[in-house]
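Q: How would the C-alpha cells look for this protein?
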Amino acid sequence: VQLQAFGGGLVQAGGSLRLSCAASGRTISSNAMGWFRQAPGKEREFVASITGSGLSTVYADSVKGRFTISRDNAKNTVYLQMNSLKPEDTAVYYCAGRESPYRSRWDSEYDVWGQGTQVTVSS
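A: Here is the predicted structure in C-alpha cell form.
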C-alpha cells in the first residue's frame, strides 16, 4: 500500500485546514491509521490515531479539542481536520498506517508512511 498526504498550506493563526491521506494499492479498512508531525529541529511527534473501523480515536494533548481524525473507508482515505490553528502547529505532517486495526501513539508501530505535507501557521 502507498500513502499520499496532501492538503497542507499556509494559514493564519486561528484558521483551519483539512489534511487528507489517500491510500492506493489495497484497501486500508482493516488498518489503524495515524497522523504525526515534525517541526524543524524537533523530533517527530504523535498527533492522532484512528482504528480500522473508525469507531475509536486518540489525540495528543496538544491538539485535543482542535483536531479531528476521521476516515472514509469507501474512499480509502483518512482525514485530519485542524481548527483553531496555532503557530506551534507548524510542521510537516505525515500519515501512517499499521497492519493492526488498533490505534497507537507510537511511530515505531506503524508500517507504512506517506511523504508528508507542510503546514505553516502564521501569527
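The chain has no helices and eleven strands.

The radius of gyration is 13 Å.

Upvote if useful.
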